[in-house]
Structures are given as structure tokens and as C-alpha cells.
Amino acid sequence: MLNPARVRSYQHLTAGDLVPPTSPRVFFEPADTETGVWVARDLITDGCSVLDLGAGSGAAAAAMARAGAARVHGIDSGRETVAWAAEHYASPGGDPRVTIAHADFARLTTEELLATAPAPLPRPLVVTSNPPYVPLAERADARRPSISGGPDGLKWAPAIIGHARALDSDLGLTIASYSTPRRAVHLLRDAGYRVRGITLCPLPLGEFTLRHLERILALEQSGEAVLWRRPDDLTPAYFILGLACRRAHRHPDVPDPTGDDLMRLLRTAARSRTTRLETLDAPRQITHHVPLRVLDLPAATVRTHW
Ligand SMILES: C[S@@+](CC[C@H](N)C(=O)[O-])C[C@H]1O[C@@H](n2cnc3c(N)ncnc32)[C@H](O)[C@@H]1O
Fold first, then answer.
1. pTM: predicted TM-score of the whole model, two decimal places
2. For the chain, which end, N or C, has fewer CB atoms within 10 Å of the first or last residue's CB respectively?
3. C-alpha of 210 from chain center
4. Is the CB of 131 under 6 A from ligand 1?
5. 33 lines ligand 1 (CB under 6 A)
6. Is the CB of 101 under 6 A from ligand 1?
């Protein structure tokens, strides 16, 4: 029995965080952001610091501080995004535990990334990222930097995993059920990470993604992406997929799900009729159990990406 924990309301984002930013170049999809915070929460210990790669509006960073991190330092490559986050969430005017810097995490070394923080980050350090993860064909990809994840949705994963590994930190990574999750687990395991907690959140596909679905459909056909196709709803949906990962050498004997286990889990979820993902309650053949959480959240009417 998987017996997932179910959460039916936003527990981390505040009412203010659920209001869309007035700047069009600030990512806004609250279910996505809330999922990333749950993943961080699985890894945060009192007094730790979080390095959040692709921090967006800063709402997630502030929520991670409220969830127990002593410091959260966010990095984002969008200038308007960073201006928004600095004004609304970071110190000096916002939460004193939150800082934000303008930087490209794929271009900087890990040391250079840490040096963008105004003061050294206390250890232990957790790396989190809810990066652009939509698999898009090249032309569409170039048009939407805040969601474009390259041909398999994992364009940014090697850089993120590389930084976490260089820091010997635990890693919270949020992707989607269509972002080649099996490959994501392979990349994580190759780098010495083990998935120790899974958060799933069903979400309708966004308008832009629906208009540029070719790559996702090709991945689905090849068995590397899972969409949720309900008989009563012609428009496919997907699952946001939060992976709380720990360094294997610190937990050597704990069994963990493989990429195949994860695909089986997603396919089971995709047989559900409701956003509760009720099929996950049935006895299953998944060999390695890790804590599983289902976020059954009201979908936002507005979503902003650029
Ligand atoms: C999908 S949004 C998520 C934002 C935030 N983590 C959240 O959950 O609300 C991805 C963010 O990553 C940023 N980003 C994309 N590539 C980046 C890179 N190479 N370096 C830094 N930030 C990047 C984008 O500007 C965008 O704000």
C-alpha cells in the first residue's frame, strides 16, 4: 500500500503569494511553486541554508525560510524577475533570511554562485530547483526561457545536479511527469543521489504547452513521458513531480525507487479519475517505497511565464 499523504490547500504560499505579479516577466504558477516548497521542506533541517537555483518571484524562497531554513539565497537569470523578488521578498525590505542575486547558474562555477550571496551561507546547505522543465522543439524553446527545458525537459538538470554534488548537499528537484523522469532518476543516481520523497501535483497543461505539444507527445509515444488523459476531459493534464533527494553515501542501505519504479508510479497515478489520484491507494507492485505526497490544489486561473 502506498498510502500517500494528501494535502488539499496551499500550506506554504500566503494569500499574497497567490496574487499574480504585475510584471509579465515573473513566473507565476502557484501549484508549481508550492510543490517546490514541499520538496524543500522534506530536506530542510533547522538552521540549514537553501540555495535556490532559478528562484523566480522569490515566493518559494520566502516560504522555505518560513519552513525552517535559517537562510535562503535565490539565483535567477531574469533581470525583471530578480528586481521583483528583491522588492517583494528579499532583505533588506522583505524577509531578512532571504537574499536574491542575478546570475546564470549554468554559467557560473559553484564557488562563484555562493559568492553572489551577501554573506556566507551557514551549513548544512540544501540545493533546490524548480527549473524550466517543459520539453519543447527548438523554435518554441527559444521563445519561453522561463519554462523551456530543451528537447527532453532536463536541459538544466546536469548543471543543477552538478552544483549540488560539488557542495555535497541534498537536492530538491521539481520537474514534470513529461520531463523524461526516468532519465532524471538516472542522472541523479549517477551523481550519487537517491530519491527519498516524492510529491505529485496534478495540473492542466498550460496554453503555451498545449500549442507546442509535439515534443511531449513524441516522448509520451516513446514511453518517456506520462500525461494524464481522463475519459471525461479531452484536454490532457500532467503531474508536477517533486523529488527530494539525498546523498547516497550518507544513507547507503536505504532502498530507493529506480527510474522504472517512478514511471510505474506515474502511470498508476494517470489511471485515476480524480485529482485525488485515488489509484495510488491500491496495493501496488512498486518495490521501493518512499514517502509519497499528493497535492490536490485548486488550479490558478492565471499563469504567467515568459
Ligand atoms: C519555472 S520558473 C520557477 C520559479 C520558482 N522556482 C518557482 O517555483 O516559482 C524557472 C525560473 O528559472 C529561471 N532560470 C532559467 N534558467 C536559469 C539559469 N540558467 N540561471 C538562473 N535562473 C534561471 C527563470 O528565469 C525562472 O524564473
1. 0.97
2. N
3. 20
4. yes
5. yes
6. no
What is the DSSP secondary structure assignment for residue 47, as one 8-state letter? T
Task: Kindly state if the Cβ of 81 falls inside 6 Å of ligand 1.
Answer: yes
User: What's the pLDDT tens digit per position in 208-252?
Assistant: 999 999 999 999 999 999 999 998 888 999 999 999 999 999 877
Question: Which atom of ligand 1 sits closest to the CA of residue 106?
Answer: 19
What are the structural domain ranges in the chain? 5-295
Model confidence over 42-65: pLDDT tens digits? 999 999 999 999 999 999 999 999
Q: What CATH number does the domain located at 5-295 have?
A: 3.40.50.150
C-alpha closest to that of 20 among 30, 12, 10:
30
Ligand 1 atom 26, closest CA = 146
E strand map for the chain: 5-7, 49-53, 71-76, 98-102, 125-129, 170-176, 193-204, 237-247, 292-295
SS3 content of the chain, % helix, strand, coil (to 5): 30, 20, 45
Contact 225, 219 (CB under 8 A): yes
126 CB neighbour count, 10 Å cutoff? 27
SS3 assignment, position 175: strand
How far is the C-alpha of 194 from the C-alpha of 199, rounded, in Å? 15
| Ligand 1 centroid from CA 129, angstroms | 8
Q: From the alpha carbon of 37, which atom of ligand 1 is closest?
A: 8
Q: Classify the C-alpha dihedral 87-92-98-104 as positive or negative.
A: positive
